[in-house]
Amino acid sequence: MVNDLPDLVLFRKVAGDLAAIQCEHLWDEIARTCDVDVLCGYVLNSFQIEQESHIYHRIRAEHSAVLE
């Protein structure tokens, strides 16, 4: 934060080092504290799902609901 506002440069530095699932865990904590729903979007084509199925299944397992 800079002057009580999110700073793009600092955010990129910190978030750039985190995996997507770790970021989602942080957002989930904020969502519980503030009583809001968080919707995540992932765009994967069928080739990516086949080639990276372990990642796809890990992402699905982290969510309470999945729409395809």
Shape by Cα distribution: globular
What does the average pLDDT come to? Answer: 81
Biggest pleated sheet: none
Number of domains: 1
What's the total count of β strands? 0
Salient structural properties:
globular, single chain, 4 helices, 68 residues, mainly alpha
Q: How would you describe what is shown here?
A:
The protein is mainly α and 68 residues long. It has one domain (8-61). The chain is 56% helix and 0% strand. The protein is built from 4 helices and no strands. It has helices at 8-15, 20-34, 46-51, 53-61. The radius of gyration is 15 Å and the shape is globular. The mean pLDDT is 81.
Quick take:
With 68 residues, this protein is mainly alpha-helical. It is built from four helices and no strands. The chain has one domain.
Topology:
Blueprint: H1 8-15, H2 20-34, H3 46-51, H4 53-61
